Amino acid sequence: MTGAQLDESTTVLAPAAGSSWPARIGLQVGALVVVVGLWALAADRGWVSERILPPPLDVWRSFWNLLTDGILFDHLGVTLWEVFAGFVLGSAGGFLIAVAGSLWVPFRRVIYPYMVALQVTPRVAIAPLLFIWLGFGAFPKIVLAATICFFPVMINTLTGLTIVDEESDELFRSLGATRRQRFFRLALPGAMPVIFAGLKTAISLALIGAIVGEFVSAQEGLGLLIQRFSFQLNSSAAYAVLLTLTAIGLALYGLMELIDRWVVFWNRDERLAKRSERAAARNARAKAAVARPQRISDQ
Amino acid sequence: MTSTRRLLALLVAMALVAAACGDDDDTADGDAATDGEGAEAAADCGTIDFLQPIPESIIFWPLLVGNELGYFAEEGIEVNLLPGGELPETAFVENGDADIASAGGPEVLQAIDAGSDLVVVYDYWNVAAEGIVTLAGGPSSVEEIADGTFGLVTDSDLATISVVFEELGLDPSTANTVVLGESPAILAEALENGDVDAIAGAIIDFIGMQASGLEIVDITPPGFKASPSASFIVTPDTMANNSTCIEGFLRAWAKGTHAGLHNAENTQAIARAAVPEEWEDEAAGVASYDQSVAPHRPVGSDGQYGVVQVDVWQGVAEQLVGTGDLDTQDIDVTAFVDQSLIDGANDWDRSEVEAEIDDWSADG
Q: Among all residues of chain B, which has the CA nearest to that of A216?
């Protein structure tokens, strides 16, 4: 996925000009109500077997039981640890390799085909091998998650760092900026929006990696819970865990979105305007502080 | 400058977490079972890495009961369970990740055929985990539905159909089969809707159907049911250097098996406390226990647990040779079966174990 593609998708998903946030939230909640209503109707009328699609109320009851029994929390912690550790490992690896590749072209030429080869190799197929190589426990699942979320960060970082605005680059060069200054003050800030687009994709993929790993071999984790409930044909509990996973995926994506807004503040006009206002206020206060002693001394 | 600092802070945080996750490997390293030092005294066995196909479950209750009643601790053993899932158990015994593993007969035979050096020391499921089921009140034998459609949980279950057809004198190539997948919901629907006449799969596939209230009956011919579906395997090195600890493990397992067969209620209560998620649906938990009772029963006339039935193994090997799954034409199972630990594994007082499980209570 490239930065350009992400920009396009962002444009498509952006709300129409003039639409207020209450209206937007209202539409989103309305869509959810319609989907759940249709689901309840399908279950009630027997259009779909309850074994395959249990009624939403049953799923809610199962979710509540799993929550109050503490079962969900026990397994949630394990899965979240695998997701975060895999994400950090994979994205840090992807970022560092991309930085090295952007700074050193021969390295990029050597490493790039292997990175693509890793990406096109189905990770589900190598999951059992990871357990044979790395043993049991959380580590192979973390590595699996890391290998899955590595690529989007690597490719987005590399794309961002190698596509530098030519005029800005020319300006930096003409002002005698060093290579280090051009990297940290031009290339990296320019690449940050694309890097964060990769990180947002990566965090979702890390969740998938952890769950695939738990499907292969696990003693704990939400993937194992889904398997257990599926084998027992406890469909409502399996759906409850599945929807929990969806909620976790959305929450992780939202978390990355928040970090993105905080770190890449210059990419959003309103954040940039607020920072400018704060900076102007700071400057005004500083000027006033300097002027005050002067007036006192004048007296 | 501020953004650079933020970025650096982010990178440092990433590096710290990455370094921390390098230490996370919950596989125990006790390994007294493989280093040979604990062979003389059971109390020195330490951690035994045990690989079984599924995580803790009522289906393999001897581990749960053995832990709860302290049978493994009595032998000086702490069991580190490695859930194998779809992984090849034989490979993990060979590479030393597992000291002892549970594996199906065909898998062991194929590993031996491929050159693996393994020893079968104990059969704890002497009944095939695979079978053919249909709706209760429907056909009572495979012959009745030989022209019908057989649903397969996975394509490997075609072997079950082939062997059963051959055993009944039917031509396996005439069997009409369709792979349904592993979802018990789809299996139940296909059977109930009449899309298939019977389903070939494993016990674990049938538990869900039974728990959902679908009444099913096993129509697998008795001849097919005699099969080593779960056996304990170790390496020859482990047998040579650490047989005392392995014998202790097997004894604790046998006692747990006996306790579970003797008192279903308390066994289920132990499992309920150990694996609560398996009892989220009480009926499913009970069905899991019910399905696993028959395979756990000892097959020997003297009631000994774990006896390796060499003739049954030989029969399975010949079947696999016949279907082309083994290259070695004259495989000799006595070459990799070692029954020297069976007597020791059964050297305990039945009535004592029965009293212990009867006296057990959830409140301690």
A: B85
Residues from chain B contacting residue A233 (CB–CB below 8 Å)? 184-185, 188, 208-209, 211-212, 284
Measured CA to CA in angstroms, residue B272 lies from B265, B266, B280 at distances of 10, 10, 9
The CATH homologous superfamily of the domain defined by A54-266: MetI-like (1.10.3720.10)
- Top residue of B199, B280, B282, B289 to mutate, by most chain A CBs within 10 Å, is B280
A207 near B CB under 8 A: no
Q: Inspect the interface and report whether the beta carbons of A69 and B278 lie closer than 8 Å.
A: no
**Per-residue pLDDT tens over the stretch B193-223:** 899 999 998 888 888 888 777 889 999 888 7
Beta-carbon contacts of residue A92 (< 8 Å; ≥ 6 apart): B11, B14, B15, B18
Question: Residue B228: its pLDDT value, please?
Answer: 81
- Is there a contact between A189 and B3 if contact means CB atoms under 8 Å apart? yes
A135 part of contact set with chain B, CB < 8 Å:
yes
Contact flag A233-B209 (C-beta cutoff 8 Å): yes
- Chain A residues touching residue B11 (CB < 8 angstroms): 92, 95
Find how far residue B320's CA is from the centre of its chain: 20
Query: CB A233 to CB B212 under 8 A?
Result: yes
Render pLDDT for B270-317 as a digit per residue (tens, 0 to 9). 999 999 999 988 988 998 898 889 889 988 778 899 999 898 889 888
In single-letter form, the type of residue at position B301 comes to S
Query: Vertex B172, ends B166 and B173: CA angle to 5°?
Result: 155
Provide the terminal-to-terminal Cα distance of chain A, rounded to the nearest Å.
67
- pLDDT recorded at residue A254: 94
**Minimum-distance CB partner of A231 among B7, B207, B276:** B207
Q: How distant, in Å, are the alpha carbons of A216, A295, B25 from that of A131? A: 9, 75, 12
pLDDT of residue B15: 41
Which value does ipTM take for this structure? Answer: 0.72
- Model pLDDT, residue B34: 37
Q: How far apart are CA B360 and CA B268, in angstroms?
A: 12
Confidence class of residue B156 from pLDDT cuts 50, 70 and 90? confident
Nearest to A235 by CA among B190, B85, B187: B187
Per domain, the residue ranges of chain A are 54-266
pLDDT of residue A67: 92
